[in-house]
Amino acid sequence: MPHRGLLEKYGSLLDLPAHTQTVTLLEGNTPLIPAPHLAREMGGGFELLIKFEGLNPTGSFKDRGMTAAVSEALGRGAATVICASTGNTAASAAAYAARAGLKSIVLIPQGKVAAGKLAGALAYGAQVIQVDGSFDDALSLVVQISEKHPICLVNSINPYRIEGQKTAAFEICDALGTAPDWLCLPVGNAGNITSYWAGFTQYDLLKATGLPHLLGVQAAGAAPLVLGHPVEKPETVATAIRIGRPARGEQALQAAEESRGRIVAATDEQILDMQKTLARLEGIWVEPASAAGLAGLAAELNRGRLEVRAKRVVAVCTGHGLKDPEIVTRALTAPQIVPPKLEALEEAILR
Question: Does pTM surpass 0.70?
Answer without folding.
Answer: yes
